[in-house]
Amino acid sequence: MRTSGILMHISSLPSPYGIGTLGQAAYDFADFLKAAGQHYWQLLPIGPTSYGDSPYQSFSTHAGNPYFIDLDLLREDGLLTQEEIDAVNWEAHSARVDYGFQYSVRFDLLYRAFLRGWERDADAVREFRNANPWVEDYALYMALKRSQDMRSWETWPEEIRLRRPGAAETYAVRLGDDVHFFIYLQYLFFGQWDALRGYVHALGLEIIGDLPIYVPYDSCDVWANPSLFQLDETGLPTGVAGCPPDYFSADGQLWGNPLYDWERMRQTDYAWWKERIAAAARLFDVIRIDHFRGLESYWAIPYGDKTARGGKWVKGPGHDFVRAMQERFPDLRLIAEDLGFLTDDVIRLQKDSGWPGMKVLEFAFDSREPSNYLPHRYIRNCICYSGTHDNETLAQWLAQTSETARAYAAEYLGLTEQEGYAWGILRSGLASVADTFIAQLQDYLGLGAEARMNTPGTLSDRNWSWRLQPGLLTAELAHRLRRMNTMYERL
């Protein structure tokens, strides 16, 4: 089936309280997708964010971001009052997401909701805990972080840092109020998520979720499962993840995520990964695995190095991992994010998996050599993107790319000033043979550098903070998108 969709994260929705949430603006966006003839809403990872505000650096691979809990829905449920919500000066922080501001005000409001709801909702919370056993470690982890001034777990007292016998139980009692608070936040998040997803499905739409291949060192996942990662006896990493030096970066990229102990994972038949994917499958209809090439081989950098230069390629689990996942989840739909440096082995793994790879139009027009991202090289079993969250918007790319690349794109795609170059690129993606076409919402809106979601390798308050302004999702825009989807048989 030929389909299309739009990439926009929840944080970018124009909710009234400084960051997008699972409230009315999310329902309105689903209505827009339906009117525009789209089939997919693609999101970035939805977990709680940590240092740098990146959704790809989350405290938990299972938990939902408390910032996305909608305050108006809590008011309707009797957990907050409008006066309490209005006491915060939201307007001063509305144009872009201010994560520091959100941290300073959100948890106080959510704690008020917890005090009103914990006993009232006791039976429902008990059912939630039984159905989601991961929440116990997560809530204890977050309560411990709060008690330790949010410091990373390697600085905690040794008995709980290394989870000595009895330590977790002792701290769970000592920090019981905060443990209950973080459990209740997840109960609220998943209640609102399930309601939104049910609405999306009722419209005939589906959600594509994003699963980062790695988890951060400062996460519940590493603290609670140290034997699954390449750590020493003190709990510190022996190697970390990144990318090698290339044309774009002489030092490579030093991500810093701890590396998996894939042999240990194999011995357990990838039980941790199976649990992780099962949890994602309960949230999303399709799952995009970020940095898929790391399953074939990964760039291992010695812990403590300041750049990625000293790393080396190490074989990953490859076909054995794919086999295990496909046996456990025979009907699961996955997207392999196969961008970056690809070897024949990586290409073979992606093809053998049967999972569709990605084609990014912004990568197609480097005139130095023929590109596999040119539409005439596509196969049906792929996902064509105008650009991803890590790329420039189309308007920004057209303004900043070389004149040679722009001229090449114009000639190859038949771009004209009358149609608009950005719209011509979008049209070409929709017209391609790819089964699915996804564009960032910013590209349909014609937004430039001010709307870029993320610039990789940089730490900036411009990253992850773009917000859609009210009134831009017009009936005229929906009609134009629907007409194009009709033309290229993607309804």
TrEMBL record:
Claim: Signal is one of the keywords in the record: no
Single GO term (MF): 4-alpha-glucanotransferase activity
Catalysed reaction equations from the record: Transfers a segment of a (1->4)-alpha-D-glucan to a new position in an acceptor, which may be glucose or a (1->4)-alpha-D-glucan
Source species, domain of life: Bacteria
A Pfam family hit: Glyco_hydro_77
The keyword Protease appears for this protein: no
EC class: transferase
Assigned keywords, A-Z: Carbohydrate metabolism, Glycosyltransferase, Transferase
EC number, as in UniProt: 2.4.1.25
PANTHER family associated with the record: 4-ALPHA-GLUCANOTRANSFERASE DPE1, CHLOROPLASTIC/AMYLOPLASTIC, 4-ALPHA-GLUCANOTRANSFERASE DPE1, CHLOROPLASTIC_AMYLOPLASTIC
Family statement drawn from the similarity comment of this UniProt entry: Belongs to the disproportionating enzyme family.
UniProt name for this protein: 4-alpha-glucanotransferase
Organism listed in the record: Faecousia intestinalis
